[in-house]
Hints:
By secondary structure, this protein is an alpha/beta fold. The protein has helices at about 5-15, 20-30, 40-50, 65-75, 85-100, 115, 135-145, 175-185; strands at about 55-60, 80-85, 105-110, 125-130, 150-155, 190-195, 200-205. The protein has a single domain (about 5-205), classed as Rossmann fold (3-Layer(aba) Sandwich). Strand 4, helix 7 (about 135-145) and strand 5 form a beta-alpha-beta unit. The longest helix has 14 residues, at about 175-185.
Amino acid sequence: MSDKDSNWRFVEELITEPNEIAQARQHSLELGVEPIAPAVGAQVSLIAAASGARNMIEIGTGLGVSGLWLLRGAPDATLTSIDIESDYQQAARKAFVAAGTPSSRARLITGRARDVLPRMNEQSYDVVLVDADAASVIEYVEHGLRLVRPGGTVLVPHALWRDKVADPTKRDDTTAGFRALIKETADSTAVLSALSPAGDGLLQLTRLRD
């Protein structure tokens, strides 16, 4: 094992998830829904806390793992979460309740993100997390950057897409989409961009003030 692999394993194993997140993760894995990695969750939580987040939105509820990490960092914030699968959202709602999150602070919207997002208020959110249909990641990030306030951050888990992004021989549409997103945002003058290798990658985009 290389030193980099050892460092990666150390970082991943360092995180001990709270019981309610661990249970949501187990439920998610049982249903075949890939949650964010614990190390990514810790970073997401830290960014929510550092942002002093009051309003957050996530595209892709899943079974509630990412939402629980966001609320762990900003327990007084309101989280709006969008997913097309109502069954997943019901499970996520139970996970939020188990974690002590008041129902008024977890607003779950069932529907297609591309239909819901245009109706959301611009520049109204401190943190936007994009973890839905990977093939639509560029479209969802564009919406995220519209919704997030100046100084707010858009978070994109799975940005290294199953270790394919760094391999130039991998040219499927989804991998190419993540690769293009990372390059374009790195060159952008509208955002500050950072890519963490934790988990399956976490792209962090902070919107600069106009």
